[in-house]
Amino acid sequence: MSSVSSGFVGEIDLPDADHVAIGPDGKFALVCRPTAMKVAVIDTSDGRIVKELGVDRRANQSVFSRDSLFAYVVMGSDSVLEFSTDDWSLKRRIDLSPRPVSMKMSNNATFAYTTFFGGFQEINLEVPSIERTYAINTISASFSMSLDGERAFFTDRESLIVFDLLGFVVKFAIPIDNADFVAVDSTGSRAYVWSNRVGENRVQVVDIGRLEVIHEIPVLAFVKGVALTSCGAHAFVLSSRGSVMKVINTDSYAEIGEAFVGGELRSLVVTPDDSRVYVANGSAVKVFDTSQWKL
Predict the structure, then answer these.
(1) 256 CB neighbour count, 10 Å cutoff
(2) Which of the residues 60, 87, 173, 295 has the least number of beta carbons within 10 Å of its own beta carbon?
(3) What percent of the chain has pLDDT over 90?
(4) Is 16 in contact with 35 (CB distance < 8 Å)?
């Protein structure tokens, strides 16, 4: 699917801006506002807030279907809301138990995957029903998926887990100190693992094929998030020290740039065309043009 050019650069005033997601076609960004119980819909071409979706619980996370036709909002309850991106109308409420924490879509419109406190599960969206469940008591809240949709990557505090979605089994468990969050490049060959625990001021780089940590990126403060370009050549790292975003060349691991964000760093995402980075800081969404770093 081709993506649109994400033209807007600047700051979008949005109190309580938290989790941000962008559709595969690049047309819209969704920003969860948990306390306000709203989700803002942003047109990426000009930065306008075209609609605010009212919800009846905290909106913790949003995700788009792979064809960008639907958006799903993970609620602070046992449910997920499905919206049509055509007119942003609410199509249905999907009740799930146990309560989902984070969600990713499969390559087809039928299945989705969620973490919950105690495990990982496959959801059939057509029925809807929980198809398969895998118990992991200390599973991380967030997870990543390979672009081919065949593997998921999450942590259990002491290891990075490579999960086979076809067989629904753990394929590898790679020991890692204090593993809480993970971002994976589009090929599924390298993972970037970090923690927000005291003293964990680094991002660990894992070679999935070699099953080992191959590098550590020092951050000198709490890591608040990591996002990668589509080809995995550059990483954007949110650092609580100075409230900044660092730009890392993933071949040399050299820091090639830095941008001040300010506020309380919440989340970040790179547009599908790699031209922009959206960062939510609790009071606004800041949009940076990546060409300044000559990516």
Answers:
(1) 13
(2) 87
(3) 79
(4) yes
